[in-house]
Amino acid sequence: MNTELTMDKLVSLCKRRGIIFPGSEIYGGLAGTWDYGPVGVEMKNNIKAAWWKMFVHDRSDMHGIDSAILMNSKVWEASGHVSGFTDPMVDCKNCKNRFRADHLDEGKYGEVKIIDGKKSCPVCGSTELTEPRLFNMMFRTYIGPVQDTESLVYLRPENAQGMFVDFKNVLDTMHPKLPFGIAQIGRVFRNEVTPGDFVFRVREFDLMEFEYFIDPKNWEELFEMWMKEIYKWLAFLGLDKEKIYNHEIPDGERAHYSKRTIDIEYQFPFGMKELCAIAYRTDYDLKCHIEKSGKDLTYFDEKASERLVPHVLEPTFGLDRALLASLVESYKEEQLENGETRIVLKLPPKISAYKTAVFPLVSNKEDIVNKATEVYKMLKPHFNTIFDDNGNIGKRYRRQDEIGTPFCITIDYDTLEKGDVTVRDRDTMKQERIKIEELADYIKTKI
Ligand code: GAP
Question: Which CATH architecture does the domain made up of 7-73+141-327 adopt?
């Protein structure tokens, strides 16, 4: 039996177990959108909370913000996104399909043949392809009832501009000293030409990023410091270091604002691909906003008694890709002694949707169900817990293994007499009897 993880297996597990559903499914779906289900949203929120704790709360040099998704269009003109946030796109004049030029060359849409020196369409085989044209990936909408250039606004494609636009407000209210950061987690939108690979490339996603404002003298040292911190984050996600690669982006290939970028790539089932990144954005953004807004966005260095435009290091993390990598890494198919196979997500417990699942051994004995309900209610204030009395115990274990619940707790006849329960460990499948009054502390030490 092939126990290797394929994307089909993962997509199917995610759908079957309430982790991720196709977007707008009952209407045939909407390309590049996915919905997080009751289990997936918990996992996603756990990653968000851990990120905020690690990069904001556990530090004394970071402030968080939550800026609006809709911003004045001048922001995107100043940042260079109106002119530069583009992908090259090729159209087939025959079948009218549209392709991202680099993805076409990589064979992502199927085989491209060269016929009489011309590339062929991977869908219909015609050689009537247009030259690559630049396509802006920002979604547009209009403020108010009139749809004209005055009312045009964009859905933000990154959070970063919120941090630059609010830079002065944060300086004036929090009085931070360099180096310091402004962090944000929020939804961003990109009209990707080729969404795909499940939630890897989607048209709306959550981005967790911060701008770390520095004196440019120290940029190289601080760049290295952030690389180390990023690796701590990757360890939190439970990722194997062997599957991670630092891709130094060469001159000429970096985003328009960056002097150095490292894409941190992960070995997904569909290839080694960008998981997160760090860029040295220099003073590009603040300078652009100073010029376009006419506002003073400088920082006063008291020690040197001089004003400067701080430079910026920007670590950026796609939340959906973080969860995807964690799911890929933790997905295991194990052969059991009885010949059956179990699928188990060996997720770091901090990411698991539920830390414990509580089962009454049988669902038709009032005493047992009542005791199980009591245990469930006792555990719930300590950590997210789910009650499951559906089907036999074997099926319930299988369900919880498949969503990565680290501990299953069964209330049986002995519980009523002795006041202890069976605790089953997801990874080892070993079972222990634990007293009810010691249960919460026992689980806490394990997660
Ligand atoms: N502010 C910098 C910035 O936005 P980026 O490399 O364009 O940089 C940051 O995007 C991160 O967002 C990527 O490292 C990746 O994790 C995630 N990301 C980018 N495009 C995505 C997409 N279409 N779907 C899901 N995640 C995406």
Answer: 2-Layer Sandwich (3.30)
